[in-house]
Design a protein that fits this description.
The chain has 454 residues and is α+β, with helices and mostly antiparallel strands. It is built from 14 helices and 23 strands. β11 and β12 form a beta hairpin. It is globular.
Length: 454
């Protein structure tokens, strides 16, 4: 089976998200897994290929359904996607880029929010773009106003329709001064993908600076873009008339690496994550050490395990270089086994603790405060949307019948079932394929005891 076949078979359009697992827990996960390119970079680098006048090569592409969705969207817009000579690589040829029908875009968008990032590149190439109703994990409001406001400042005309949003560029887009009210990753990507071909200079203030953003900047610079990162979250982009293709190896998926680290803590196991690197995980590793985890940094990856009894911590999610919101869900499973009271303040999304209902059903002592907790010293300024979860442990978990709500929550449910005694039925696990490559194979290699029953 080829890489493209693997990716198609992992998508929600082939097999859906309805798989059900019977998991027999209570045994430590031990062994090694390898992480490939970050979902949050690979999908954006694929979109960037539209901007080039020649083919691009992207390496370390993971077999996940989000990649399948973006590949399909590229193909309906005339981009030719083929496998490269190296295992796990794509060649993306934008020579035949053309407008796609609304129905085609909507049919291939699936549950992805990537279509909005096509806007800037398509406005440059074709003078128009269309965004269908956006999907994605239901973890809170993700307004696209930041995107649309930025595109308007570049000179795009935005027309809202019942079926989505149509954008046009009667004249060449021009540089703009943009100040994001929040350092949104998606809005920062939008500005980068649009500004590189806009006429003049764009100054982006309060930009996101995640490693995946820096890697996208590296991709665009390889294509011929002129981008500089200034102090205090300021990015300057000097527009150019043309861009070429790129050859790039994607930064590793630090979210997947942190997930396996939390799985090692929760199950009292030992997992080597090949391809993981220390610099991008610095903040996570600090929290892991405070919890009582241990890690061994190696040239080709990181080994994670417990260093003794787990200890309670207080964590506040934040944009990079803070503690990633994607890290808190798997970590909470491990915190159910810590001795004492842990608190997790969620400051990025307002609905990301829904997954804890299943953990409570399995025996965890978790109380969610939907309006956050007042008072106390804080590293992250309190936000109006903030929630907090208070976890008391250690609590033995037992098997239950649970349903996966979203990507990271779903992974956390599976790890909780593997931590619990007895058998659990975990439904809707197909959604995990959005961000975890060959998930079942990796669980098997780590000694997990489970069956796919539907």
């Amino acid at each position: 089976m080829t890489l493209l076949d693997d990716i198609v078979s992992s998508s929600g359009r082939k097999g859906g998200s309805g798989e059900t697992l019977a998991i027999r827990g209570g045994r430590p996960l031990r062994g090694s897994v390898t992480v490939k390119g970050a979902k949050n970079l690979v999908t954006k680098a694929m979109v960037a290929a539209i901007l080039g006048e020649g083919p691009s090569v992207l390496r370390d592409v993971p077999v996940i359904s989000d990649v399948a969705v973006v590949r399909s969207l590229l193909e309906v817009h005339g981009v030719r996607v083929t496998e490269g000579e190296e295992d796990g690589s794509f060649v993306l040829d934008p020579a035949g880029v053309e407008s796609a029908h609304m129905e085609e875009i909507d049919a291939h968008a699936g549950a992805s929010r990537i279509p909005i990032l096509f806007c800037g590149p398509l406005l440059h190439r074709l003078g128009q773009a269309f965004i269908p109703d956006l999907g994605g994990c239901r973890i809170g409001d993700r307004p696209i106003d930041f995107h649309l406001d930025a595109l308007r400042k570049f000179g795009a005309v935005v027309e809202k329709l019942p079926s989505g949003i149509r954008l046009s560029a009667p004249r060449r887009l021009h540089g703009a001064n943009i100040h994001l009210p929040y350092p949104s990753v998606g809005a920062t990507e939008q500005v980068l993908l649009t500004a590189v071909r806009a006429e003049g200079v764009t100054e982006l203030r309060n930009a996101a600076i995640e490693p995946e953003i820096m890697d996208l900047i590296a991709v665009l610079q390889k294509m011929g873009a002129i981008i500089s990162y200034e102090p205090n979250r300021v990015i300057l982009i000097e527009g150019v008339d043309r861009l070429s293709g790129y050859d790039h190896r994607a930064v590793f998926d630090r979210n997947e690496a942190a997930s396996w680290a939390s799985a090692a803590l929760a199950t009292d196991g030992e997992i080597f994550v090949g391809g993981a690197h220390q610099p991008e995980m610095l903040t996570f590793l600090n929290v892991l050490r405070k919890v009582g985890g241990d890690f061994d940094i190696r040239e080709d990856g990181i080994l994670f395990r417990r260093g003794g009894d787990l200890r309670p911590v207080t964590v506040e999610t934040d944009v990079h270089p803070g503690f990633m919101t994607d890290w808190q869900q798997p970590l909470i499973v491990a915190l159910t086994q810590a001795h004492g009271e842990s608190i997790v303040h969620e400051t990025v999304y307002e609905n990301r603790f829904g997954f804890t209902d299943a953990l409570v059903k399995m025996g965890a002592d978790i109380v969610v405060h939907p309006h956050g907790l007042q008072g106390g010293p804080r590293r992250v300024p309190r936000r109006n949307l903030e929630q907090a979860a208070v976890i008391h442990g250690p609590t033995p978990l037992h098997g239950a019948d649970i349903t996966v709500p979203d990507l990271r929550g779903g992974y956390s449910h599976v790890i909780a079932a593997l931590t619990a005694t007895g058998e659990s039925t975990v439904r809707n696990v197909g959604i995990i394929s959005r961000g975890y490559e060959k998930f079942f194979d990796k669980l098997t290699s780590l000694g997990a005891d489970f069956d796919v029953i539907g």
